[in-house]
Amino acid sequence: MADSQQPKANMLNRILYTLKLKKRPDVDRTRVMKAFPVRNQLITWEIDGKGEAALVIPQKGKLGIRLISKLFMLPEKRVIVLDSIGTYVWQMCDGKHTISQIVNGVQKQYQLTRKEAETSLFTFMQQLGKRNFIQFAIPQENASAATLEPEPAKSGLLGFLQRR
């Protein structure tokens, strides 16, 4: 497919997925666990005195949103404060740690069972992915371990993973 047609195909797929006219491709659990979550670079954050992360999210720059914001005097940025577990996960979403490593860290840090850690982490990451706070880099299937490089992923399975 030509490079100029790629964005059109992606947009069409997103529409079809949203309307549930096309099924998202399956991504197996092993590939999900090897994915690298990466924070959105537009979101700034800092850790307060309580050890909680405060995320500063800029509002979207679309014309309609800007007009409504001015009309109702809405702030230009939103601030979301994460609890201690959310802060730990947010710090680990640096593109260097896999989901499996984050699950292990949450399990050890907060004395949870593997199933509890996975379930809560997947739910939290799904929420972050849907809101575009994080994206996922999924390693290619045929890449060797020595040349494994993260590959950016778009929304998909569970609202946050999709094959490229």
Topology record:
Blueprint (H helix, E strand, L loop, with lengths): L5 H13 L10 H5 L2 E4 L4 E4 L5 E6 L4 H9 L5 E5 L2 H9 L6 H11 L4 H17 L3 E4 L27
Helix pairs in contact: 5-6
What keyword list fits this structure?
Outer Surface Protein A, domain 3; two-stranded antiparallel ribbon; flat; 6 helices; 164 residues; three-stranded antiparallel sheet
Notes on the protein architecture:
The chain has one domain: Outer Surface Protein A, domain 3. It has 6 helices and 5 strands, in the order ααβββαβαααβ. The chain has helices at residues 6-18, 29-33, 63-71, 84-92, 99-109, 114-130; strands spanning 36-39, 44-47, 53-58, 77-81, 134-137. The strands form 2 sheets. It has a 3-stranded antiparallel sheet, covered by helices on one side. A two-stranded antiparallel ribbon has the order 1-5. Helix 5 (99-109) crosses helix 6. The longest helix is centred in the last third of the chain and has 17 residues, at 114-130.
Provide a compact summary of the structure:
Helices cover 39% and strands 14% of the residues. By secondary structure, it is an alpha+beta fold.
Number of strands: 5
State the secondary-structure class: alpha+beta
Indicate the CATH architecture. Answer: Alpha-Beta Complex
Mind describing the biggest β-sheet?
3 strands, antiparallel
Low-confidence stretches: none
Number of separate structural domains: 1
Q: Total number of helical segments?
A: 6
| CATH class wording | Alpha Beta
Spell the H/E element sequence: HHEEEHEHHHE
Evaluate the radius of gyration.
Answer: 18 Å
Mean pLDDT: 81
Strand order, biggest sheet?
Answer: 2-3-4
